[in-house]
Design goal:
heterodimer, A: 8 helices, B: mainly alpha, two-stranded antiparallel ribbon, 2 strands, 2% strand, globular
């Protein structure tokens, strides 16, 4: 990762949380029925990712002597960011409704594993969140088209979403940053 | 026992409830990886369900979610620590997907409150765990066969080239899981639409 632009482009392509890492598939299959719902879900997760990145950046100076303690910190950061963002959402929205998503926890774990530090954590979180949001919106747009397509009964719903996601993922595999 | 068998087949977490896709797509590229993650998830799911049952009796409603998540984190970190001592190779293979159990949609889904008695809650979680394990192993076997040309690590073809190397990658995993879901839907005579 050499510059902010590199990080951003990587988050959309070869580092895409959903299509390249296989994370966030719960939201991907459940919150992409329409563009509005996808944008809302992606926006909330983006906010949680940014907050998680910020907490991680602040906690950067903390030194842990064991891998397990470090892991506990990452999981707590992800949980806290989900719970804090939840406080600003309507009461009917539960943490279980896709906010405490594998994309959020996975991002924090990936940032820790890859040793991303300093202000780069914030850049990487923003880029990953934007990549996640755009992927959800793209899939929602595709699903609106798929609704009108003559698809065999057995393939309707989740199977065709996953197959379409697989083909999208193959397309972005061509990019290398 | 009905609840147990239902979760194993008729309400299989992966093939029918469409939960736990991340491990199925990102981890289960071989039968062994699917078996390992399925077993660990099963143990964590059963323990979480038992502790969650008692937490729901002790904690007020507005503090339950935080309590449940903290218990889940403690169990996951403990599992990571134990596995690191017993079998570091598994920890290396599963990589971030072992701690990611915290956000596993099947485990999160199982935290939802229900009115079942304690015995039924345990049977329900054991059924879900075995159903999840069964699905991950099946997906792992199919992906390993196409992606590496092996069955539980045993070579099946004389050629070094696998039948479909893409099967072992995330995009290949999405396509294969999608096709397996369609196959299950065809057998059940249903579509794969999501119902809340």
């Amino acid at each position: 990762m050499t510059s902010g632009l590199d990080v951003l482009v990587q988050a959309f392509t070869s580092g895409n949380l959903i299509l390249a890492q296989g994370l966030g598939l719960y939201a991907f299959t459940r919150y992409t029925q329409d563009v509005k719902k996808a944008a809302k879900s992606g926006g909330i997760t983006l906010a949680a990712m940014l907050l998680g990145g910020f907490i991680l950046w602040v906690a950067d100076g903390l030194a842990f002597n064991t891998e397990t303690a470090e892991l506990g910190l990452y999981l707590l950061v992800a949980t806290c960011s989900a719970l804090i963002v939840r406080m600003f959402l309507p009461a009917k929205f539960s943490v279980r409704d896709g906010l405490f998503d594998s994309a959020l926890v996975g991002l924090i774990l990936l940032l820790g594993r890859d040793g991303v530090s300093g202000v780069n954590v914030l850049w990487a979180s923003l880029a990953a969140g934007l990549g996640y949001l755009i992927t959800l919106v793209v899939m929602a747009t595709l699903r609106e088209r798929l609704e009108l397509a003559p698809i065999p009964k057995a393939l309707r719903g989740v199977p065709i979403i996953l197959i379409t996601a697989g083909l999208l993922a193959i397309a972005i595999m061509g990019f290398r940053f | 026992m009905k609840i147990f068998w239902e979760n194993l087949f008729r309400k299989n977490p992966v093939f029918v409830l469409f939960l736990g896709f991340v491990p199925a797509v990102a981890v289960a590229s071989s039968a062994e990886a699917g078996l390992a993650l399925g077993l660990i998830t099963g143990v964590i799911l059963v323990l979480t369900t038992i502790l969650n049952y008692f937490l729901s009796l002790l904690l007020p409603k507005n503090a339950r979610t935080v309590g449940q998540l903290v218990v889940l984190i403690i169990l996951t970190v403990s599992a990571h620590r134990i596995l690191l001592t017993l079998n570091p190779q598994v920890v290396g293979t599963l990589n971030i997907f072992l701690p990611l159990l915290v956000a596993n949609s099947l485990v999160i889904y199982s935290l939802q409150e229900n009115d079942l008695p304690f015995g039924a809650v345990i049977l329900d979680s054991i059924g879900k765990s075995l159903g999840f394990l069964l699905a991950l192993v099946l997906i792992g076997i199919v992906r390993e066969f196409f992606g590496y040309g092996t069955f539980f690590g045993t070579k099946l073809f004389t050629s070094d080239l696998p039948p479909l190397a893409l099967a072992s990658t995330v995009p290949g995993g999405m396509i294969i899981v999608g096709l397996l879901l369609a196959l299950v839907n065809m057998v059940r005579g249903q579509g794969g639409e999501l119902h809340d």
